[in-house]
Design goal:
The protein is an alpha+beta fold and about 190 residues long. Helix content is about 15%, strand content about 30%. The protein has helices spanning about 90-100, 160-175, and strands spanning about 10-20, 25-30, 30-35, 50-55, 65-70, 85, 115-120, 125-130, 135-140, 185-190. A five-stranded mixed barrel has the order 1-2-3-5-4.
């Protein structure tokens, strides 16, 4: 069983620009579409305009955007073979849950336990609680673990960000709130 199956096949477009934290303008089949961007922060230090992207179509007719940008590529738009970087940080939790339910982390966590989503620990909401273990999933897009081709435009590297502050807060919260006989895992997920 796959962790997530798109109702319709993904289609390829080219990002024109990032409008806001949550939206991008994407050219697909010669038309410009207002699309949802599921990564609210930077993707590395990349300038996303002119990058190929994969789009999922929305099945919700009440949604304001017809598509969601699921992945980007550092290849040129005209390249026939592309490698993709997943940018849908929400999808990472679905993938982790799938692997938890199917024994993918059996060396770290017992698969016989109930899997609870979004559990409060101190002042933080953590992604999972399984048995005696809290799990916080982080999908790092700030630093890409790959070489950036010369033709890809980049931005100045941003200083320490609010997302890094949030991750630091989660580390501290985990350390201060974890009870006797409880464990915590900070799981870094890369969607390459």
């Amino acid at each position: 069983m796959l962790p997530f199956v798109f109702k319709n096949p993904l289609v390829e477009g080219v990002i024109e620009k990032r409008n806001t934290q949550f939206t991008m303008q994407v050219n697909y089949n010669g038309e410009s579409y207002h699309c949802h961007c599921p990564s609210t922060g930077r993707v590395g230090n990349l300038e996303l305009s002119e990058r190929p992207c994969l789009l999922s179509s929305s099945v919700d007719s009440s949604r304001k955007t017809a598509f969601t940008v699921e992945a980007i590529s550092l290849n040129k738009p005209e390249d026939s073979e592309k490698k993709w970087i997943g940018i849908n940080q929400n999808a990472a939790n679905r993938y982790v849950e799938h692997f938890l339910r199917n024994g993918g982390f059996s060396k770290m966590i017992s698969t016989s336990n109930v899997i609870c989503r979004e559990q409060i620990l101190g002042n933080s909401k953590l992604d999972f609680f399984v048995g005696d273990t809290f799990i916080e999933v982080k999908t790092s897009l700030l630093f890409l673990q790959m070489d950036i081709p010369e033709y890809v435009k980049t931005k100045k590297i941003a200083p320490y960000s609010a997302k890094a502050d949030r991750m630091t807060r989660h580390f501290i919260e985990l350390g201060n709130s974890i009870g006797k006989n409880q464990r915590a895992i900070m799981l870094l997920c890369f969607l390459l």
